[in-house]
């Protein structure tokens, strides 16, 4: 599988960018009717979060875009192998980079928090190339060669990566030494591993890790999300540091910091709902009945 995939990738890269874009969109369009299970998951998520705020046609459009985003992100990893830093720079506009500069001038570590939103692989590459190289956590694939291929692509633009099972020590080391890490905060989280927060008017669980690390290392939590302007242009936006007035109760502080991150993510999704990765069971631990 690995060698056939690599052959196909190299063959595809011989064609112009416009053709490749057309090809990716065609694959997403053709695959969409066949992926019945995933479409049901998307519908369940959209009905649960937006209810009647969105029409059936709007939800269908978001559903189709979700598959295109997934394909686009995989292709971004592939094309990173062949992309120069100047080509990347032409595609990405960075907004509010001064927020990061101020934190670094204060000699504080940074925790970038983001999500499976827009072209998140492009976002990660752009952070490393133009803002601040960071340590990125990844989950190794079953196919070791393909996993190595993807890892090299993610490291091309100055970022470092660490496998999820080995991440805790590496993350603490980076933050202790005043450096930067990047974490995704939108995965499904079990009750015993998460913090209960309000998200789209429902109770669900978010990882407390970012809040715990920030309090432990006096690190700044900086949300960052990438928005699609068109097929070849993107805007990477940094948000103000997520911070609270300490209450004197560490558990309360962790919960409040986590809730603020959830609030920002919800606001970002509401502005561009077609950008989020709706095709996974995000609420399977807090409201599993919606997927039956």
Describe the structure.
The mean pLDDT is 94. This protein is of the alpha/beta class. The longest helix has 25 residues, at 56-80. Helices cover 50% and strands 17% of the residues. β8 (220-230) and β9 form a beta hairpin. The strands form 2 sheets. The chain has a 7-stranded mixed beta sheet with strand order 1-9-8-2-5-3-4, sandwiched between helices. Strands 6-7 form a two-stranded antiparallel ribbon.
Helix-and-strand structural type: alpha/beta
Count of discrete structural domains: 1
Low-confidence stretches: none
Q: What percent of residues are in strands? A: 15-25%
Structure keywords:
single chain, 292 residues, alpha/beta, 7-stranded mixed sheet, two-stranded antiparallel sheet, 11 helices, 9 strands, globular
Write the layout of secondary structure elements.
Elements lengths: L1 H11 L4 H15 L4 H15 L5 H25 L4 H7 E4 L2 H8 L4 E5 L5 H12 L3 E4 L5 H12 L4 E4 L3 H10 L3 E5 L10 E5 L2 E5 L2 H9 L2 E11 L2 E6 L11 H22 L21
Parallel strand pairs: 1-9, 2-5, 2-8, 3-4, 3-5
Antiparallel strand pairs: 6-7, 8-9
Short précis:
By secondary structure, the chain is an alpha/beta fold.
């Amino acid at each position: 599988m690995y060698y056939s995939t690599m052959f196909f990738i190299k063959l595809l890269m011989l064609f112009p960018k416009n053709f490749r874009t057309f090809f990716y969109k065609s694959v997403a369009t053709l695959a969409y009717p066949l992926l019945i299970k995933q479409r049901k998951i998307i519908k369940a998520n959209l009905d649960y979060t937006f209810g009647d705020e969105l029409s059936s046609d709007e939800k269908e459009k978001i559903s189709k875009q979700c598959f295109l985003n997934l394909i686009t992100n995989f292709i971004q990893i592939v094309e990173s192998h062949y992309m120069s830093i100047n080509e990347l720079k032409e595609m990405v506009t960075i907004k509010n980079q001064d927020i990061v500069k101020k934190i670094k001038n204060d000699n504080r570590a940074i925790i970038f928090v983001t999500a499976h939103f827009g072209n998140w692989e492009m976002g990660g590459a752009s952070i490393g190339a133009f803002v601040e190289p960071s340590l990125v956590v990844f989950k190794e694939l079953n196919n070791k060669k393909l996993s190595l291929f993807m890892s090299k692509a993610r490291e091309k633009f100055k970022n470092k990566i660490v496998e999820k099972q080995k991440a805790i020590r590496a993350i603490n080391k980076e933050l202790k030494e005043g450096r930067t890490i990047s974490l995704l905060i939108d995965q499904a989280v079990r009750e015993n591993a998460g913090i209960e927060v309000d998200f789209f008017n429902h109770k669900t669980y978010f990882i407390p890790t970012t809040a715990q690390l920030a309090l432990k290392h006096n690190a700044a939590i900086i949300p960052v999300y990438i928005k699609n302007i068109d097929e070849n242009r993107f805007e990477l936006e940094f948000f103000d540091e997520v911070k609270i007035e300490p209450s004197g109760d560490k558990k309360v502080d962790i919960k409040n910091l986590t809730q603020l991150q959830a609030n920002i993510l919800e606001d970002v999704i509401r502005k561009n709902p077609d950008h989020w990765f709706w095709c996974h069971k995000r609420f399977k631990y807090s409201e599993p009945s919606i997927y039956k």
